[in-house]
Amino acid sequence: MKKLLYIALIGLLTFSCTSRKEQQKAEDDTTSTIDSLKRALNQSQNESNDLMQTIEQIQEGFRQINEAEGIVNVTSEEGDGRQTIIDNMNLIEQKMRLNRELITNLQQQLRTSSKSNSKFKKTMEEMVKNLQQQLDEKETQINDLKKQLEDRDIRIAEQAEQIDNLNEDVNILNTQNEEKAKQMAEQEKELNKAFYVFGTKKELQQQKILNDGAVLRNNDFNKDYFTEIDMRVTKVIKLYSKKATMLTNHPADSYSLDKDTQGQYTLRITNPQNFWSTSKYLVIMVK
């Protein structure tokens, strides 16, 4: 009888242990699923914020273009303020160039987006299509405006009966305008140039980016190993790694390191001007 009771007790304890293990496994699976859903939700929200920030930046660009275009039209009608016209036409060219880059970047963001909400994605794609159409229409308007400015100078020449002299002035002005626009574009590009690299400890050491635990200690590191970007355009950098460590110093409130649904990190630069204020070089160590 005692033997039977002993066997029964052992069986009960074994069952109890097995049940606890199964329960623990179920709880762990549930926790893992919840964490995965949280990461997916967080990634979706971050991607939405990235897209909307880029769209807002493009819309602000169009606002500045329209404002400058209005100034050119008013100044042109008044028949004076040639330098004002030149400065605002240069501004228009700069903002048009930046908007082209931002729209291209936006299209790339949508292509690589992990959002499963097809309705949202379709809405965003339609919005990008409209922005591209708006850019194309604005391009036509600006070209028409350039032609009007050229014609205005020619009409003035006819009225003053100095066609040859003024045409020469116009050509010189156009050349100066083009050179100034090119110079300003190069200066603008230089001012907004930044560089980033991510790699394993061994890779960074091989390129002399990391020396004895110090990053960019000397100036003999391999600069060609870095990727050059326009800090106004590139705000999201996928790191393709489940472990990432920032080696260069950047203000903590100017970026976030977020995990996607696969647990891989993505760097999101939320305040580009502040982020790059400490260094134009970004180094991240991954595994």
Task: Tag the structure with descriptive keywords.
287 residues; alpha+beta; 4-stranded mixed sheet; 3-stranded antiparallel sheet; 6 helices; 9 strands; flat
Averaging pLDDT over every residue, what do you get? Answer: 80
Number of domains: 2
* Widest sheet: strand ordering: 4-1-9-6
Compute the separation of the termini in Å.
62 Å
Unreliable stretches (pLDDT < 50, length at least 5) are: none
* Share in helix: 55-70%
Write up what this structure looks like:
There is one protein chain. The chain is an alpha+beta fold and 287 residues long. It has 2 domains: 38-191, no CATH class; 193-286, no CATH class. The protein contains 6 helices and 9 strands, in the order ααααβαβββββββαβ. It has helices at residues 2-78, 82-112, 118-160, 163-191, 201-206, 272-275; strands spanning 193-199, 210-211, 214-215, 227-230, 236-238, 244-246, 255-259, 265-269, 281-286. The chain is flat.
